[in-house]
UniProtKB/TrEMBL annotation:
Keywords: ATP-binding, Lyase, Nucleotide-binding. InterPro entries: AAA+_ATPase (IPR003593), ABC_transporter-like_ATP-bd (IPR003439), ABC_transporter-like_CS (IPR017871), P-loop_NTPase (IPR027417), PhnK (IPR012700). This is Phosphonate C-P lyase system protein PhnK. PANTHER family: PHOSPHONATES UTILIZATION ATP-BINDING PROTEIN PHNK-RELATED. SUPFAM superfamilies: P-loop containing nucleoside triphosphate hydrolases. GO terms for biological process: organic phosphonate catabolic process. The keyword tRNA-binding does not apply. GO terms for molecular function: ATP binding; ATP hydrolysis activity; lyase activity. CDD domains: ABC_NikE_OppD_transporters. It comes from the Bacteria. It comes from Candidatus Viridilinea mediisalina.
């Protein structure tokens, strides 16, 4: 199988670190913050690969480092160490995204990546209309023709089941579920090769959550787009992700096929997650 992304030995810490950090932090110690120096080891030696077209789940409790990992892949947070290898679907030569300069990284993010945040204000300009938000992403990806941008926006609104007549309305007039659809429309605008989803249904009522998950499933089916799906909720992950990574205190403690993890969790922490999801 061809891979799209390979994350190799990726690290991120918040703080200066000290000689005692390694011994005092991690899943066995049950904390990611060093009691000696206060540094948070939010992502330690993360390794995984992402096949083209697959949905990979990242599950773990709040504070386990999921968003930190996702932001590094989104090139919006620099890694301290490690590689994020990207193999373009159209050619074989892999590149290390961590080595890109600022300009190339921005271009890559706008053109090849789409991200949906838990909080819509992080992903949307709340003072722009829906059309303005999608146009912003397309302009950054160097779309220039106003008519084409407008047509693409209408197409995206249809695809994400947003009423097309609301193209000029501002986000603050939309419900929570619709705001997530607007974020998804914006994220998909440039036809990215990788969609990053960070707790996209966490703030929603269960019925609304189910409909947004249905939409994501349909998009994955229609576009065959590769996705990294982050959630603290194994129930959400199991509905969409073929394979899953389990994070605890900044480290990956288990990974494998989601069905296998659900049926036969190996790590005590995963066993806890599974039993509370049943
Ligand atoms: N900018 C930051 N500065 C310091 N600590 C941070 C920062 N961002 C996140 N953290 C800490 O890093 C750890 C991982 O956070 P995060 O990646 O947001 O986890 P998750 O998304 O799994 O809840 C947490 O302990 C959090 O408090
Ligand atoms: Mg998070
Ligand atoms: Zn320390």
């Amino acid at each position: 199988m061809t891979w799209l992304l390979q994350v190799v030995d990726l690290h991120k810490r918040y703080g200066p670190g000290c000689p005692a950090c390694a011994e005092l932090t991690g899943p066995r110690q049950g904390r990611s913050q060093c009691p000696r120096c206060g540094t948070v080891h939010a992502c330690v030696a993360a390794n995984f690969s992402l096949q083209a077209g697959e949905v990979l789940g990242i599950v773990g409790e709040s504070g386990s480092g999921k968003s930190t990992l996702l932001q590094m892949v989104n090139l919006s947070l620099p890694a301290d160490q490690g590689q994020i290898l990207y193999q373009p679907p159209e050619s074989g030569a892999a590149v290390d995204l961590c080595q890109m300069n600022g300009y190339s990284a921005r271009h890559f993010r706008n053109d090849r990546l789409g991200i949906v945040h838990q909080r819509p204000e992080l992903g949307l300009n709340m003072h722009f209309s829906v059309g303005g938000n999608v146009a912003e992403k397309l302009l950054l990806a160097e779309w220039r023709h106003v008519g084409r941008i407008r047509a693409r926006t209408s197409e995206l609104m249809r695809q994400t089941e947003l009423p097309p007549e609301r193209i000029d309305d501002e986000p603050h007039t939309f419900s929570g579920g619709m705001l997530q659809r607007v974020q998804i429309a914006k994220a998909l605008a440039s036809r990215p090769s990788l969609l990053l989803l960070d707790e996209v249904t966490s703030g929603l009522d269960l019925s609304v959550q189910a409909r947004v998950l249905d939409l994501i499933r349909r998009i994955q089916w229609e576009e065959q787009i590769t996705m990294l799906l982050v959630s603290h909720d194994l129930g959400v992950i199991r509905q969409l992700a073929r394979r899953t990574i389990v994070m605890k205190n900044g480290q990956i403690v288990e990974s494998g096929l989601t069905d296998q993890i659900m049926e036969d969790p190996q790590h005590p922490y995963t066993q806890l997650l599974v039993s509370s999801a049943l």
